[in-house]
Each structure stands twice: as structure tokens, then as C-alpha cells.
Design brief:
Elements lengths: L9 H6 L32 E7 L12 H16 L4 H6 L8 E5 L8 H13 L7 E3 L12 E5 L1 E5 L3 E2 L37 E12 L16 E5 L2 H20 L11 H7 L11 E7 L7
Parallel strand pairs: 1-9, 2-3, 2-4, 4-7, 5-7
Antiparallel strand pairs: 1-8, 5-6, 7-8
Helix pairs in contact: 2-4, 5-6
């Protein structure tokens, strides 16, 4: 991508001189209005719901996970998002016992907690999903053809190659060529969600925000990991990344005591909305609901 096609420069972004509704700048290249060959599906009307559930007791003083508390948080998440009155019914409004379900956790830097994968698996089985129909579907060697439903389980984190490395990026290994989706090319991450073996299969996204990372590596730095003690959920991947970005940026600014924008800028979020029509990136089109602990919500 050539710089002459970019109306807001990387330098503008790093200086923090360009504001958006999220309190940081996005690059807005002229190709944001371009169409995708074959034509994307139209976005459903109305606002996207992002639910944030937090519990101060889900982590102990040593950052160990209390599975009982986490299970209760998962139940609140599913009921709050679907509107059902019981967790089993909530799951069955999203998947059914005939589905082959692929769980897609984050494997690196800020991995999805094993306890979250465990409580989700246990609750799916309790809802009537056969154990053999639940698989780990993260990785480039996964056979997606046999999987009928995906549940994405990324960890909330910044990323040194794409700015943010949470929801939209969580399927990058399905591309077969992750190196082609970094820096300015991270704007193309949304196209992975339109691959034939992926498109339309994502039933739910639950972001592991128990201990997010607000700076981007590549080497993990524990100074930038903090106990947010939350789960975030939606069926809109773009809205989740937009709200996750807002939380990460607020934490960064608080740590520095001044604006500390991400670099490279997380252009994949706006592109996933404007080009790939995967959901809403504008906060005016996102409804946020919170349950539980309210200290330092950062939204």
C-alpha cells in the first residue's frame, strides 16, 4: 500500500493529533469505499450488543482462576446476550446437538485461559452437545470442512504487527499465510472471515478479558498485563474489537498519564466494517451492557 493513498498518515496517528469517537486515530485510506469481489453480505440493521461481565473474585491474589466464579460469569454472559432464562437454552439458541463445534482460543502471547475453555466445554455438554462434537479449532492445519459452528475465544491484547490482536485477527492462521496480514496489510484481516470454510460459521465470540495485555510485544512484558477480571461477548466481531480497543487504549493512557496511541494503528477494525461488512466499528452503533464489578471499566 502506497502512502499517497492514505488521507491520515501514520505520523499523524502516532502524534495523536487525529481524534475519533474511540479517542484514538484510525488510518482512513481511500480504498475504504472499495467493493469486495462477489459482494459482501449486507449488515443487519440496528445496534450491535457487546456484553461485559466482570467479577472481582474470579482471580485470586496470585492470578489463579476460580472456576466456580468463572462458570457463573459464563452463565451471566450467555443469558445476558441471548435473553434466555437458562444457560442450556441460551446455548441451544446458538448451536444444536448436531453441530460440530470448533472452539478457537488464542494460542500465543496472552493465551486464552484453559479454565475458560474447560467451563465452556462443560456447559456445552450439559446443554446436550456431544463431547465428541466439540473440538479445538485453532491452527492452520484444522479441517474446517467438518465444523459447522465456530465459537471464537480470543484473549484481549494489543499486538506489535496489527495494533490489536483480539477478535478479527483470531482466525489469521486459517489464511495459510499470516505474514500477509501485518502492518498496513492488517486491513485485510476481515477477508479471512469470508473464506468459504469460515464464512457464516461463527455463532458466538467470547473474549477472555481476565488479564488483558495493553502493550504489544513481540516479547511479553508483564508490566502491561492487568487484572480486568472480565468476559466480553457478542455476535459482532467488529464491535467487540472496537470496545476491546477502547479498553486497551484507556489503560495505556492511564499508565502513561497522557495519550499513548497504538503503533501500528489498528486499521483492521474500521476495514472489517467498511470493506468486509462484518459488523459495526462506530461506537454510535454499539450498545454496551455491563454486569458485575464496575471498578475501572475503562469504557
Amino acid at each position: 500500500m502506497k502512502s499517497k493513498n492514505i488521507s491520515i498518515t501514520r505520523r499523524d496517528f502516532l502524534r495523536g493529533t487525529v481524534g475519533t469517537t474511540m479517542g484514538l486515530a484510525f488510518l482512513t485510506p481511500s480504498w475504504l469505499s472499495a467493493s469486495i469481489p462477489g459482494g459482501p453480505q449486507a449488515r443487519a440493521s440496528g445496534k450491535s450488543l457487546v456484553l461485559i461481565v466482570r467479577d472481582e473474585s474470579v482471580l485470586d491474589s496470585g492470578s489463579l482462576v476460580n472456576k466456580q466464579v468463572l462458570s457463573a460469569m459464563l452463565e451471566q454472559t450467555l443469558i445476558g446476550l441471548t435473553g434466555e432464562k437458562e444457560m442450556n437454552k441460551a446455548w441451544l439458541s446458538l448451536v444444536n446437538p448436531k453441530d460440530v463445534i470448533g472452539l478457537v482460543p488464542t494460542p500465543l502471547m496472552n493465551p486464552t485461559h484453559n479454565e475458560l475453555i474447560e467451563v465452556i466445554t462443560e456447559s456445552l455438554v450439559a446443554a446436550g452437545i456431544p463431547q465428541e462434537n466439540i473440538r479445538n479449532a485453532q491452527g492452520r492445519l484444522v479441517n474446517l470442512e467438518s465444523i459447522t459452528a465456530l465459537i471464537s475465544l480470543p484473549g484481549l491484547k494489543a499486538h506489535w504487527l496489527t495494533g490489536i490482536g483480539t477478535v478479527i485477527k483470531n482466525y489469521v492462521l486459517y489464511s495459510g499465510a499470516p505474514r500477509n496480514y501485518h502492518y498496513e496489510d492488517s486491513a485485510k484481516l476481515g477477508e479471512i472471515w469470508h473464506l468459504p470454510q469460515v464464512k457464516g460459521k461463527t455463532r458466538l465470540i467470547i473474549v477472555d478479558a481476565l488479564r488483558p495485555v495493553c502493550d504489544k510485544g513481540p516479547q511479553f512484558d508483564p508490566r502491561y498485563r492487568w487484572p480486568y477480571k472480565g468476559l466480553m461477548a457478542s455476535t459482532d466481531p467488529v464491535a467487540l474489537d472496537a470496545i476491546g480497543l477502547k479498553i486497551i487504549q484507556a489503560k495505556r493512557d492511564k499508565l502513561r498519564g497522557e495519550p499513548w496511541p497504538l503503533s501500528p494503528p489498528p486499521i483492521c477494525i474500521e476495514a472489517a466494517d467498511k470493506i468486509y461488512k462484518l459488523g459495526h466499528s462506530n461506537l454510535d452503533n454499539i450498545e454496551i451492557k455491563t454486569i458485575g464489578w464496575t471498578q475501572e471499566l475503562l469504557i
